[in-house]
Amino acid sequence: MKRPLQTVSVAEAATNQLRESLFSGDFTAGEEIKDTRIADEYGIARPTARIAVQQLINEGMLVRDPGYSARVRTFDPVQVRDIFRVRKLIELDAVREIKVSRGPLHQVEAAMKELGHYGEDLSWSKTAGADAAFHRAVVQAGGSPRLSAYFDGIWNEIRLLLALPEEHFGRGNSPYEEHDELFQLLQGDATLKQVQQAWAFHLDESRDFLVQRLSE
Q: Which residues pair with 33 in a beta bridge?
């Protein structure tokens, strides 16, 4: 059976590139993103650049006030706490369902391998992306399409937040070690209470670090 290749438009390619640049921390919070700048850097027409910028405005990664150029989305401590409040509700529910149903964790295991691959990489953006993908895989393993959809709704916000810190935050372990600890609890004989306590601590620590960084 033939499977035709999907053609990616120039505007879509530019959008993907700009999105990855934001995730990589190439732009600072609040930095101005002019259509002309994107057009020059990517070698594309200005209307095409405008489409890419508008798409990321629609995704909530950029903002644009009337009469001004787009800017990188900024976060304040209240917004971070709210994002993590929703995130914790979704992830703890997924963890509960996984422990109760003993469902397969193939996607989570694959995400762990990816995180291990980037664990020694000097690029924080790749590690942060693998970090977020691990948690996304856990939510999907929870088996609720609606909760997965809600999580995807804050996915870009989580990725953009993870692009903020230049150094790793946590208990002193590597990102891989921290997530492997959670993974072993999830698939092992630990009680649901033990897993949820460890998970909540992990998320709360990340939230508090980001809040502190934004408050400085």
A: 70
* Domain final position from 72, 102, 125: 72
Tell me the pairing of strands 32-33 and 62-63. Answer: unpaired
Q: How many residues does the chain have?
A: 216
Give the CATH number of the domain where residue 19 resides: 1.10.10.10
pTM (2 d.p.): 0.82
Domains held by the chain: number: 2
Chain-centre distance for alpha carbon 31: 20
Residue 66 domain flag:
yes
Distance CA 130, CA 27 (A): 20
Per-residue pLDDT tens for 31-57? 999 999 999 999 999 999 999 999 999
pLDDT digits over 98-156, tens only?
Answer: 999 988 899 999 999 888 876 555 566 777 788 889 999 999 999 999 999 999 888 88
Domain encompassing residue 25: 10-72
